Amino acid sequence: MMKRIIFSAITLASLASNARAADLPSRIPPALPPPLIFTWTGVYLGGQVGYQWTADSSGAIYSTGGAALAALQPNFNQAGVIGGGHLGYNWQVNQFVLGVEGDVEGSTLQGSGPYASGVYTLTTNIDVQGSVRGRLGIAWDRLLLYATGGVAFAQIENKYSNTATGLDDLKATRTGWTVGGGVEYAFKPNWSARIEYRYTDLGRYTDLLINSSQGTLGDRRHETDGAVRVGVSYKFDMFTPPPPRVAKY
C-alpha cells in the first residue's frame, strides 16, 4: 500500500513539472526570414563627371554659290571636363535589365586655333549638353554590364574672328545621337557606382558667316565627340516592388 502511495506521488510530481515546463517561454530563437534577392528595379538619381574630346568639321568654307573658297586644314583639338546629373528607371526581368535614363551636363570643352588656311581664328565652346537614352544590360547579382543609346543634344558656340573684317559669334542647339556602354556595381543595397564610355554625333550643319567675311560664306561642319564618365547613383526603394526572398534549406 505504501509503495502505491509513493509511486502515485512521484507520478503527480512529474506531471506537474512537465506542465510548468510547457508554460515557460521557449529558449529556441525564432527562425530568421530568408535574405532578400538584390534587384536593379527602381527609380534612381545620381551624378557623374568625366572627360570629353571632340573631332570637328572636315569640310570647307563655301560661297553662297557653292564654290569652295578655302580648304580646311586639320582642325585643332577640343577637350574639357564634363559633369552633371542623371535620372532613370530600371526594370529587371530575370538576368536582363531594361531601363531609360536622361542626363544634363555642364562642360568646359573649348578649342581655339587658326582656321581655313589661317584666314580665321575659330573658337568653339560646348557649355551645356544632355541626352535621353535607353539602357539594356545583363546582371550578375550586383554587377551590371550594359549598352546605352538614344538622342543627344548640345549647345554649340562657334566664334569666327577675322582681323581684317570682323567677328561672327554663332550659338545654336544641335541634336544628334549617342551610343556607348559601361559597367555598374551596387556596393550597397541602394548605392551603385559606374564607369561609362559614349560616342556622340551631333550631325552636320552649316554656319553662315556674314560679319567676318566679305559677302556671305558658309562653313560646313560635323561635330562628334567621345567621353568617359564615372558616376554614382542612389536607388529609391519607395518606387521598387518588394523583391523575392531566397530560402536556404
Fold topology:
Layout: H1 2-23, E1 42-55, E2 60-63, E3 68-71, E4 78-93, E5 96-115, E6 120-140, E7 143-162, E8 166-185, E9 191-209, E10 217-236
Antiparallel strand pairs: 1-4, 1-10, 2-3, 2-10, 4-5, 5-6, 6-7, 7-8, 8-9, 9-10
Oligomeric state of this protein: single chain
**Rg computed from alpha carbons, rounded to a whole number of angstroms:** 34 Å
Structural class, from helix and strand content? mainly beta
The coarse overall form would be elongated
Low-pLDDT sequence parts? none
Largest sheet: 8 strands, antiparallel, barrel
Tally the helices: 1
What separation lies between the terminal Cα atoms? 56 Å
Average pLDDT confidence is: 81
| Helix proportion range | under 10%
Major beta sheet, strand line-up: 1-4-5-6-7-8-9-10
Can you give a write-up of this model?
Strand 6 and strand 7 form a beta hairpin. This protein is elongated. It is built from 1 helix and 10 strands.
Descriptive key words:
249 residues, mainly beta, eight-stranded antiparallel beta barrel, 1 helix, 63% strand, elongated
Condensed summary:
The protein is mostly beta strands and 249 residues long. The protein contains one helix and ten strands.
